[in-house]
């Protein structure tokens, strides 16, 4: 029995990771929990802390190369209707101009031929969002190289009433980074310089178009890390991350970008360059305006430079993947991880049976860590610290307690970086697997964790079996990614999901956008989370900073509140 079980663990590691390793059986300990035996190789139950680039070794989540048919949608020149979002029926604002040959000459004059993109293939890509659900009809993308060029562009567009969509890596999931109609796309991709890094204060200053993964690599060489990490790090840009207040996998440990971003340079709609590029931790001189731009999705200004506090790289990293019989056990594990693992806890992610099933079916190279059985829930726990034996002791205490108290049904602990990255690949691969499975309705919700899974269960009761309700997310942050996967988009299914999902979230005092923003998808849904007074004040701020409403129109706030007086 003992040998069988340890063999199973050993076998798992061999199969999943195609690696040979020699466990030290001498150290195997046995625990009896609810009639099951659990075996962990005590000293190596925790992965050996590896020195080196942990981040880099993770699989980079690239855009799926699968060819997905464009979803059915009805669109005419003045009306945009996204099939997958019932209420996203908006009219093109008639006071916006269309591009003229004089406009093109002006832009070519300030940016040169290279900065003015009109070829159809490129425009098709930048008009289409990552999910291929939203598509604009822009005929022009501009590629400035400096904040001054951004300023000249916006000043001109403002005077001509030309609407603008700022675009970074275009990895957003709510249709916020693509035009709704024919807005001019202002790409930040050519503004990708790292300006400075001060090791002592650990502050990085860079341009908005820096790809997150490039910053991660740069900092790794200096012995630091970025305070945020996302599945889309290979494509997303820091300016987009800041503009959407991207959350991701490490928010549990390092907090949101409202805490890490120390300063910004932002270009306003009228072309004013707002220099708030502070590198100071403390500055109580009046209103801290940078926070207005963090998470405003490019609707108040275009972020051109970012100054960000970067935590030191930690040498001891552990990843474990645990199986649970019910959601209640996941919550208990979270509580115990907080208590016993404490300050070294860096991620606490969860996925349910349907999410695991989907990944196993649709993603190549992913193996079930527990090949002999499927479980109802899984959690991925990561710790990061600087003292190997201290970290091990903490994780050990947590795992032993969890086993003794029947909080997990099975568990594996990565023994090296390859195994750790395989565990992460399961979690990070879910959005790609969903895309490959067919149509997907995405909801990114903050809900008090005790209630969170009730929504998932209620949703399953509402929908028939052809719709797969898939739940996963950042459990440690109270963030549920509720996805309904169907063979294709269908308005009848959508009617069963919405407005139910928003009403349910609102009733339980949750947020209808935990980390993805509102974009085009949820601009008309903001009232489910924010009071009417708050939304009114937001509209007042928007009108003050962008009186002509040229910046990312139709997004974030309901258009009805922004009509010109
Ligand atoms: O696809 C989603 O719904 C979530 C995407 C992303 O925020 C994640 O956590 O993987
Ligand atoms: Zn997420």
TrEMBL record:
Cofactor(s), names only, from the UniProt record? FAD
Q: Where mainly found?
A: mitochondrion
At the top level, the lineage of the source is Eukaryota
For whether the record's keyword set contains Membrane, the answer is: no
Domain (FAD-binding PCMH-type): residue spans on this chain:
134-313
In which compartments does the protein localize? Mitochondrion
Which BP terms does GO give this entry? malate metabolic process
Respond yes or no to whether keyword Oxidoreductase is given for this record.
yes
Q: Which Gene3D superfamilies did the record assign?
A: 3.30.465.10, 3.30.70.2190, 3.30.70.2740, Uridine Diphospho-n-acetylenolpyruvylglucosamine Reductase, domain 2, Vanillyl-alcohol Oxidase, Chain A, domain 4
Q: Which GO terms describe its cellular component?
A: mitochondrion
Q: Known SUPFAM superfamilies for this protein? A: FAD-binding/transporter-associated domain-like, FAD-linked oxidases, C-terminal domain
Query: Which residues fall in a coiled-coil region?
Result: none
InterPro entries from the entry?
Answer: FAD-bd_oxidored_4_C, FAD-bd_PCMH, FAD-bd_PCMH-like_sf, FAD-bd_PCMH_sub1, FAD-bd_PCMH_sub2, FAD-linked_Oxase-like_C, FAD-oxidored/transferase_4, Oxid_FAD_bind_N
Q: What Pfam families does the record point to?
A: FAD-oxidase_C, FAD_binding_4
Q: Which keywords does this Swiss-Prot/TrEMBL entry list?
A: FAD, Flavoprotein, Metal-binding, Mitochondrion, Oxidoreductase, Transit peptide, Zinc
What EC number(s) are associated with this protein in UniProt? 1.1.99.39
Q: List GO molecular-function terms, semicolon-separated.
A: (R)-2-hydroxyglutarate dehydrogenase activity; FAD binding; metal ion binding
* Recorded catalytic activity of this chain's protein: (R)-2-hydroxyglutarate + A = 2-oxoglutarate + AH2; (R)-malate + A = oxaloacetate + AH2
As for family, the record states: Belongs to the FAD-binding oxidoreductase/transferase type 4 family.
Give a short account of what the protein does.
Answer: Catalyzes the oxidation of D-2-hydroxyglutarate (D-2-HG) to alpha-ketoglutarate. Also catalyzes the oxidation of other D-2-hydroxyacids, such as D-malate (D-MAL) and D-lactate (D-LAC). Exhibits high activities towards D-2-HG and D-MAL but a very weak activity towards D-LAC.
Q: What is this protein called?
A: D-2-hydroxyglutarate dehydrogenase, mitochondrial
Q: State the taxonomy lineage.
A: Eukaryota, Viridiplantae, Streptophyta, Embryophyta, Tracheophyta
């Amino acid at each position: 029995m003992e040998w069988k079980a340890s063999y199973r663990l050993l076998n798992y590691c061999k199969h999943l990771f195609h690696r040979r390793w020699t466990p030290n059986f001498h150290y195997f300990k046995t625990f009896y929990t609810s009639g099951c035996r659990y075996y962990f190789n005590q000293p190596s139950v925790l992965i050996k802390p590896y020195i080196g680039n942990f981040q880099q070794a993770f699989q980079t989540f690239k855009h799926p190369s699968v060819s997905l048919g464009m979803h059915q949608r009805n669109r005419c020149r003045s009306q945009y209707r996204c099939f997958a979002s019932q209420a996203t029926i908006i009219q093109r604002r008639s006071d916006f101009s269309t591009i003229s040959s004089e406009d093109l000459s002006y832009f070519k004059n300030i940016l040169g031929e290279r900065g003015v993109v009109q070829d159809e293939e490129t425009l098709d890509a930048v008009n289409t969002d990552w999910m291929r659900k939203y598509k604009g009809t822009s005929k022009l993308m501009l590629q400035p190289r400096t904040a001054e060029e951004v300023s000249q562009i916006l000043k001109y567009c403002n005077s001509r009433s030309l609407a603008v969509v700022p675009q970074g890596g275009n990895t957003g999931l709510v249709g916020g980074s693509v035009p709704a109609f024919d807005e001019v796309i202002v790409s930040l991709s050519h503004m990708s310089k790292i300006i400075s890094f001060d090791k002592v204060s650990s502050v990085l200053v860079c341009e908005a178009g820096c790809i997150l993964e490039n910053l991660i690599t740069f900092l790794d060489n200096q012995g630091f890390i970025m305070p945020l990490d996302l599945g889309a790090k290979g494509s997303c840009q820091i300016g987009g991350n800041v503009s959407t207040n991207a959350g991701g996998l490490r928010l549990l440990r390092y907090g949101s970008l409202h805490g890490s971003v120390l300063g910004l340079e932002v270009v306003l709609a009228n072309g004013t360059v707002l220099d708030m590029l502070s590198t100071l931790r403390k500055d109580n001189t009046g209103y801290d305006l940078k926070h207005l731009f963090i998470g405003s999705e490019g609707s108040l200004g275009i972020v051109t430079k970012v100054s960000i506090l970067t935590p030191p790289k930690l040498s001891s990293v552990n990843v474990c993947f645990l199986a649970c019989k019910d959601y209640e056990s996941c919550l208990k594990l979270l509580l115990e991880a907080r208590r016993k693992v404490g300050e070294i806890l860096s991620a606490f992610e969860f996925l349910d049976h349907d999410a695991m099933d989907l990944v196993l079916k649709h993603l190549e190279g992913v193996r079930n860590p527990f090949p002999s059985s499927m479980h109802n829930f899984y959690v991925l726990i990561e710790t990061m610290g600087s003292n190997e034996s201290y970290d091990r002791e903490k994780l050990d205490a947590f795992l032993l307690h969890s086993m003794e108290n029947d909080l997990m049904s099975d568990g594996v602990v990565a023994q090296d970086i390859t195994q750790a990255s395989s565990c992460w690949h399961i979690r990070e691969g879910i959005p790609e697997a969903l895309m490959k499975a067919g149509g997907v309705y995405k909801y990114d919700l903050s809900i008090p964790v005790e209630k969170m899974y009730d929504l998932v269960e209620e949703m399953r009761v509402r929908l028939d079996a052809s719709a797969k309700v898939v739940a996963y997310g950042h459990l440690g942050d109270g963030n549920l990614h509720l996805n309904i996967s169907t063979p294709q988009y269908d308005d009848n299914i959508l009617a069963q999901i919405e407005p139910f999902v928003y009403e349910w979230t609102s009733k339980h005092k949750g947020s209808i956008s935990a980390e993805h923003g509102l974009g085009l998808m949820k601009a008309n849904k903001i009232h489910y989370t924010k009071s009417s007074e708050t939304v009114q004040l937001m509209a007042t701020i928007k009108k003050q900073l962008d009186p002509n409403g040229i910046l990312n129109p139709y997004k974030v706030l309901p258009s009805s509140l922004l009509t010109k007086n």
